[in-house]
Amino acid sequence: QVQLVESGGGLVQPGQSLRLSCVASGNMYAIGPTSWYRQTPGKERELVASELGDGSEKYADSVKGRFTIIREDAKKRMYLQMDSLKVEDTAVYYCMYGVLTEGGRTIDYWGQGTEVTVSS
Q: What is the DSSP string of the chain?
C-alpha cells in the first residue's frame, strides 16, 4: 500500500513563497505521472502542476511562471515551490502519485492535503 504525506502549508502574505512537500512510502513498482492539485470549499479539485514521468511538466495557466513542481523519485519525494503567492492561491493542496503496476495498470494515490492560506 502506498501512502503520501504532504507538509509545508501555512499562512503567508501575498508575494511570499512556500514550498510544499510530499513524501511517499510503500512498495512502488514504478512511478508514473505525479501531480499537485488544490481545492477550495464548494469547488472541484483542480490540477495545479504535473510531472508526466518523462521529464515534461504541465501547469495550470493561473500558476505558470510562479509555481514549480520538483520530483525526486530516488527519495520518493515531490515538492511544489510556490512563489509570488496570491490570495487566490488559498486552498487545500493535495499531492497525487500515479503508481504503475507490473501488470501495466496505473493506480492513483492521494495524500491527505495541506492547507495554504494567502492573506494580508
A: --EEEEE--EEE-TT--EEEEEEEES--SEEEEEEEEEE-TTS--EEEEEE-SSS-EEE-TTTTTTEEEEEEGGGTEEEEEE-S--GGG-EEEEEEEEEEPTTS-EEEEE---EEEEE--
